[in-house]
Design brief:
about 140 residues, transmembrane, mainly alpha, two-stranded antiparallel ribbon
């Protein structure tokens, strides 16, 4: 089947699917990739801030104590939940990536492994969050 243009000459057949911009369409592999990058960057910035605030102890112990005092607020306790959530997802997803890379059938089970990662993450967070928040808000 060919399509005639305005000038009357035939053109190549048209298809119903058109790729525009990217091949990703929001599937599990893409979301896994995006979440892995976001959690990795968040963990990096946490470590950077942690190194800087720990270095304050050599510069000014009073400033160090003041910074550590601000970390003992309920807002920072909720921030710790976000940090643990990022670390746990990043760790489980990293194991999934290792399996995909080194297991010959890993890419066939990518979708299943993504949902296993999400399940493990949920179970871990359900075990962590209540206990942590009870400690944060009881002091």
């Amino acid at each position: 089947m060919s399509v005639k243009t305005a000038g009357g000459s035939p053109t190549a057949p048209t298809t119903s699917k058109r790729i525009s911009g990217t091949l990703y369409r929001g599937r599990e592999g893409m979301w896994s990739w995006v979440l892995h990058r976001i959690t990795g960057v968040a963990i990096f910035f946490f470590l950077l801030v942690h190194i800087l605030d720990t270095a304050l102890v050599r510069v000014s112990p009073e400033a160090y104590n003041a910074v550590i005092g601000t970390y003992q607020t309920p807002i920072m306790g909720v921030g710790e939940v976000a940090l643990v959530a990022a670390i746990v997802f990043h760790a489980f997803n990293g194991l999934r990536i290792i399996l995909i890379d080194f297991w010959s059938k890993g890419s066939r089970y990518q979708k299943v492994m993504f949902y296993v990662v999400i399940g493990l993450w949920v179970v871990t967070m359900v075990g962590f969050v209540p206990r942590h928040l009870i400690n944060v808000f009881s002091h």
